[in-house]
Specification:
about 180 residues; Hypothetical protein af1432; 11 helices; globular; binds fe (ii) ion
Length: about 180
């Protein structure tokens, strides 16, 4: 599927606001890819599609997960943030024709991270967290470190997420814990 077709389909399913965020993620991810010598083509596709599961209407996310026969565990059943990345992986393959595992995994794990992330997964996770419209304490530091050390930037970002989840009493996905343990080794 050509990029132009991706755009039309994406705008209608995720809305303009989310699409514009995805464009900023593309810009950020492409810069990181150039700096770290990662495939620009794969990064571009993964970045533009990373939120393809974030459908405009929340109830459609569950509907579509069901349609694809995806069974949610306790951890994910009430968590829309996790659901959209699980669904996104299926929408990317079934509706956008993406077959590349690196791209599909970057979409699947862009909310949680995981153990043994590839460079594309790291870049999409980080670009989503540091695109220019993101404003939170510490984002500048992560932006700066991401230019020179993806792993270090990722670890800081994941630990911040973990802190946030703990403070707000939100369940912590095991992939996030495993990603942090893996990066610390
Ligand atoms: Fe997302
Ligand atoms: Fe996003």
């Amino acid at each position: 599927m050509k990029v132009i077709n991706i755009k039309d389909k994406l705008v209608s399913s995720i809305g303009t606001k989310r699409f514009n965020h995805s464009i900023r993620v593309v810009d950020t991810a492409m810069k990181l890819s150039r700096m770290h010598n990662v495939s620009l083509k794969k990064t571009h596709i993964a970045a533009i599609l990373h939120d393809c599961g974030r459908l405009k209407e929340d109830n459609k996310v569950l509907e579509k997960l069901k349609y694809y026969g995806i069974i949610l565990d306790n951890d994910t059943s009430g968590n829309l943030n996790l659901q959209h990345s699980i669904l996104g992986r299926f929408i990317a393959s079934e509706e956008f024709g993406i077959e590349d595992c690196d791209i599909l995994n970057a979409i699947r794990f862009h909310t949680t991270g995981r153990r043994r992330m590839t460079d594309i997964e790291k870049i999409i996770y980080l670009a989503d967290a540091i695109e220019p419209d993101r404003e939170y304490e510490g984002v500048e530091l992560i932006r700066k470190i991401a230019q020179v050390d993806l792993d270090k930037a990722l670890l800081i970002s994941l630990e911040q997420t973990l802190d946030y989840l703990k403070k707000n009493d939100i369940s912590i996905n095991k992939n996030t814990i495993e990603a942090i343990e893996w990066l610390k080794k």
